[in-house]
Amino acid sequence: MTHNTKDYGNLMRERGFRVTPQRQLILDVICASGNHTTPEAIYKRVQAKFPSVNLATIYRNLDFLCELRLVVATQIGRKMYYEIAGESPHHHLVCRNCNKIEQIDHTNMKTLFNKVEREQDFTVDMDHITLFGLCAKCRQKTRRV
Asked: Which burial class, exposed, middle or buried, applies to 29 when counting CB atoms under 10 A from its CB (0-12, 13-18, 19+)?
């Protein structure tokens, strides 16, 4: 299956890795979710098609797919969430109070990355970062108290 206009199966093969049914199904499940999804939700959907797949296989393949940068992960609270890597880097703002998630454009973060590289002589190679704080609505609520 092609995800976000990329044929991830071919990308894996080009890098010398096999496209196992489990890897393909995990990619399909994440893609079909259309959003961030948890390992438990992925496991549940994979289990419907491959009952022999266990949760350890899901986690191992998620780690593998993240290493290849085909999937990106973020931790929100105590849970990990996964999504298909997009064509371009993107980042999130997560409200610690209401858990609202907003996507921010990479150009905002690229400015920061460039500054870090200039001032710290350090190249940031992340293409999916999550920043935590308070959204405007929750900030207003805390000001009223």
From this structure: buried
- For residue 129, the SS3 value is coil
CA 115 to chain centre: 24
User: pLDDT tens digits for 12-28?
Assistant: 999 999 999 999 999 99
As a whole number of Å, the end-to-end CA separation of the chain is 51
User: Is 0.85 surpassed by the pTM of this model?
Assistant: no
Please give the CATH number for the structural domain made up of 8-84: 1.10.10.10
Residue 103, burial from CB neighbour count under 10 angstroms (0-12, 13-18, 19+): exposed
The CATH number of 90-144 is which of 1.10.10.10, 3.40.50.2300, 3.30.1490.190, 3.30.230.10? Answer: 3.30.1490.190
